[in-house]
Amino acid sequence: MIIIATSQIFIWVLALERVPDEVAQLVIDFDLPPVTMLLAISIVILAAGTFIDVSPAILLLIPVFLPVIHQAGISPVLFGVLLVAGLAVGACTPPVGNCLNVCSLVSGLQIGPIFRAALPFLSANVVVLILIALFPDLILWLPDLLMD
After folding, report:
1. How many domains does one find in the chain?
2. What are the tens digits of pLDDT across the range 64-90?
């Protein structure tokens, strides 16, 4: 809870200094195609997920990337799925790796063997993350069907 409270202060400072708007404008100025933008955001999400727990990462990344997503015309639903899928991978990777720590405590094994055993599954999750970025219709067909 202390991390979340601290991240809230950090988010407030970001909003006060208009950092999300400036980041959004910087990314929009690059004039990246939506697929490239989603892949770049995925890389940032994976990197953040390896060092930050899921809840603070969500609280830190959404205010920064949501204006970018809106200005690029990308669905917020797609961004939400991309964020959750990327942070799920980050939760299972060192150095923070909360899922690895829980598995280690429950099983009594070291984190190294657990991580090596989880690598095929993490690789599959990264492939899914790439597929989400490359083929947004995989995610959006059902919401589009329900919303029409």
Report:
1. 1
2. 888 889 888 899 999 999 999 999 998
